[in-house]
Specification:
The structure is a single chain. By secondary structure, the chain is α+β, with helices and mostly antiparallel strands. It has a five-stranded antiparallel β-sheet with strand order 6-5-4-3-7. A three-stranded antiparallel β-sheet has the order 8-10-9. Helices cover about 55% and strands about 15% of the residues. The protein has three domains: about 5-175, no CATH class; about 185-270, SH3 type barrels, CATH 2.30.30.60; about 270-390, 2-Layer Sandwich (Alpha-Beta Plaits). It has helices spanning about 1-5, 25-60, 65-75, 75-80, 85-100, 105, 110-140, 150-175, 180-185, 190-195, 195-210, 255-260, 265-270, 290-300, 305-310, 320-330, 370-385; strands at about 5-10, 15-20, 220-225, 230-235, 240-245, 250-255, 265, 275-285, 345, 355-365. Helix 2 crosses helix 3 (about 65-75). Keywords: Membrane, Transmembrane, Transmembrane helix. One of its GO terms (biological process) is cellular response to osmotic stress. This is Mechanosensitive ion channel protein MscS.
Length: about 400
């Protein structure tokens, strides 16, 4: 009677065997036990694999030389790999379920195996994306991270991973070889170029920007025509994010920096000298040779010896010439002026009854607020000395109100 209730027959090599029963109750119990065994095996293997893998990774990550592994652990790369084991068990159990004589349950075997395969692809994709995030985090601690950003390259890798995952998923669902879809993909190259035009242009631009060290995070840039005048805060595959000095954010396409003129102030920051270039305009009628009264006033009021301001070429000196030489001597003694960079006080091309004197020098302060304060103090001093030398700044004569 027991033989009729349950009979097991094996193949010649016992790689395959069949279970027969004449009892409906025994058949139901066997099928239920099989399904429960598959679920229990999946759950037990998941938790055991996860615990063992995380324990090993945790011990290795605590070592100082395994900083990359520590970053991968923080981004849960190995947590996302653990579901591969139960998915593989369910995938392997698919043909076993399909061999059952229960029509409804047997019909679920093949779809269940396909879903398990799709889930394995999804799991590997999630783990790969987390790994790219860990690479980005670890690379950000390198000294060259700002000089050679890799965010654009990681974004390209992300796109490639999504494309590969899409091809594999499609091949699994349609049960075709991935080579079949790759052949069709080559025929769609022109369409893909149109769809991913900005990404391709951005990728090429990112390579050139990185290869020639044209842009770094933290650089102050100006891009005419795009209202971009501020600090670069992010370099991505398709966009460059710039924070203007009014705290507005401008998003620039990456290829714009190669096709348009861009002013990068990094050289000024690295040199440690920031330029002051300012023109003072004088009324030409006030330029004259100084008399004894003016010379006596200058001797008593200025902090430079008057003899040091006199030209040594035998030429007579004007009050404008004395003013120019005084400013030159004063700025050369200023502690904030760079003495290893040009310092010139020169006359510009005159227009009508106007004489222009230009101050050209470099300060050792590159920070914006401190630089503006220093520049303003120095120019205030320059303007305050104008009446002392008998000069008058030129002002445009406007007709009184009500007159044409």
């Amino acid at each position: 009677m027991f033989d009729k209730a349950l009979r097991i027959e094996g193949g010649p090599d016992w790689h395959h065997f069949h279970v027969y029963t004449d009892s409906a109750l025994v058949a139901v119990l066997l099928v239920a036990a099989l399904l429960v065994a598959i679920l229990l095996a999946s759950a037990i293997c998941y938790y055991v694999t996860r615990a063992v893998m995380l324990m090993i990774v945790g011990r290795l990550a605590r070592q100082e030389r395994h900083k990359w592994l520590r970053a991968a652990e923080r981004h849960k790369v190995f947590h996302r790999l653990a579901p591969l084991v139960p998915a593989a068990i369910i995938y392997a159990a698919g043909p076993l379920i399909s061999g059952l004589t229960f029509p409804l349950i047997a019909a679920l075997g093949h779809p269940l195996a396909i879903l398990a395969a799709c889930y394995m692809v999804y799991t590997v994709l999630r783990a790969a994306l987390a790994f790219l995030d860990s690479v980005s985090e670890r690379y950000s601690h390198f000294p060259s991270a700002n000089e050679r950003p890799i965010k654009s390259f990681l974004q390209v890798a992300t796109i490639v991973l999504y494309v590969i995952a899409l091809i594999v998923l499609t091949s699994v669902l349609l049960e075709r070889s991935p080579a079949y879809f790759l052949t069709g993909l080559s025929a769609m190259t022109a369409l893909l170029i149109i769809i991913f035009r900005d990404s391709l242009l951005g990728f090429v631009a990112s390579i050139q920007l990185a290869a020639y060290d044209m842009l770094r995070v933290g650089d102050w840039i100006e891009v005419p025509g795009f209202v971009a005048d501020g600090t670069v805060i992010d370099i991505a595959l398709n966009t460059i994010k710039v924070q203007n000095f009014d705290n507005s954010i401008v998003m620039l396409p990456s290829y714009v920096l190669l096709t348009n003129s861009v002013k990068n102030w990094r050289g000024m920051t690295e040199s440690g000298g920031r330029r002051v270039k300012h023109a003072i305009h004088f009324d030409a009628d006030t330029v004259r040779f100084p008399d004894e009264a003016l010379l006596a006033q200058l001797r008593s009021d200025i902090d430079q010896p008057l003899a040091a301001l006199m030209p040594d070429n035998g030429q007579r000196h004007t009050n404008l010439g004395l003013y120019r030489r005084y400013l030159s001597a004063h700025f050369r003694d200023h502690p904030a002026v760079r003495h290893d960079m040009p310092l010139v006080i020169r006359q510009l091309q005159s227009s009508h009854a106007v004489v222009a004197l230009e101050i050209f020098l470099y300060l050792n302060e590159t920070r914006w607020e401190q630089y503006e304060n220093l520049q303003s103090d120095m120019l205030d001093h320059a303007y305050g000395l104008v009446p002392l030398f008998g000069l008058r700044c030129w002002q445009e004569q406007r007709p009184p109100a009500g007159r044409p």
